[in-house]
Model the fold of this input.
Amino acid sequence: MARYDIVIVGGAIVGSAVAWYLREEGFSGSIALVERDPQFAHSATTLSCASIRQQFSIPENIRLSQFTLGLFRHLTETFGADADIGFRENGYLILASPEGLPVLTANHRAQMAEGADIVLENPAELSRRFAWLSTEGVAAGAYGRSGEGWFDAHALLMLFRKALRNRAVDFVTASVVAIGREGNRVTGVTLDDGRRLEAGIVVNAAGPNAGKVAALARIALPVEPRKRSVFVFEARDKFADMPLLVDPSGVYLRPEGSVYITGGAEPEAGDGPADPADFDPDWPLFEEVIWPVLATRIPAFEAIRPTRAWAGHYDYNTLDQNGVIGPHPEVTNFLFGNGFSGHGLQQAPAVGKALAELIAHGGYRSVDCSAFGYQRIPEQRAFRELNVI
Ligand SMILES: Cc1cc2nc3c(=O)[nH]c(=O)nc-3n(C[C@H](O)[C@H](O)[C@H](O)COP(=O)(O)OP(=O)(O)OC[C@H]3O[C@@H](n4cnc5c(N)ncnc54)[C@H](O)[C@@H]3O)c2cc1C
Done:
């Protein structure tokens, strides 16, 4: 039996960021990063839309993204001169209908208070800024002039993973199938090959599988996989200034090199826990819901050609669609970095830093994650993020 000070379950962006920042914070104990899918073929990280925004409703979420933005802006200082994640700072444009206007306006106030560079514009201003946009049914739009955009998720993950190779972290390829617990302490994990790793602390970084991993330690965590499809299409017209556009219907789209990607607007009815093995894109959603919205919102997109699609799983927190970060209040050596419900990639570096500070120094220093604590789960006290895309 091997013994580690820290066993991290899940080695994608959250797990890798925790391990990296532990070393950055000077933690010298032993670390095992356990990953069952080392190609990351099914991880949310690599199947995501890899976008980052300031446009959240909750200040704490804005701060997490701002931390990551700071990392992106100093990537080469952290990971070396050739570090590149192809960050395109094209902004988000979130449109609101007259009914959605009060929420958009309130969110904008919260973002301004956090120093975000977002402008709130009326339809005439939006038409002047983006000539390709139809403002039919739109009361206003919030546009991020800087600090928002998209990047290469796989490249970001690889930066962390490669950097960890020289930082004395053991990469373990296996699935965690059991977690030992004695009273209010977890004692270690059992792997599917029969090995057992004793652990001082277990960190749950299992993404959409986090609810099941917590259950192995007899801990209830309302995080489940929810299937989300992403469709790729070609269009004759290219709009170099196009931000990531979110329509009032919930449909989003953005450029991706010479093509576009789109998704969103999954109907609430039928949106439940996904079969963990189901990665089939929901083509009827594209044909019946998304395509008509694209053609209305951007008249030049009446003639587009869908080419391919993929599906991934959100790490969906059914209580409030927000992260659960930090220790279990009673089983204090079991830590969560879970439940980000569609915005976890951009938050992962900040969450990694926060959890590392907690472990290495006994408290949060850079980004205070107390509001995301687990205690709200048994109390059913929602800490709701309104801007879930
Ligand atoms: C379609 C889609 C679009 C998205 N778009 C965005 C976006 O634009 N911006 C954004 O910020 N976020 C986005 N997200 C969300 C984001 O991808 C996730 O919140 C984030 O990647 C979560 O990272 P993670 O490391 O916790 O989870 P994952 O990347 O899923 O990693 C968890 C890892 O744990 C491993 N694992 C699980 N159980 C075990 C076990 N028992 N033993 C060993 N290993 C295990 C898995 O194999 C997996 O590799 C999107 C997600 C999807 C699906």
The CA atoms of residues 13 and 157 lie 6 Å apart. The chain has a mean pLDDT of 97. Residues 344-361 form the longest helix (18 residues). The radius of gyration is 21 Å.
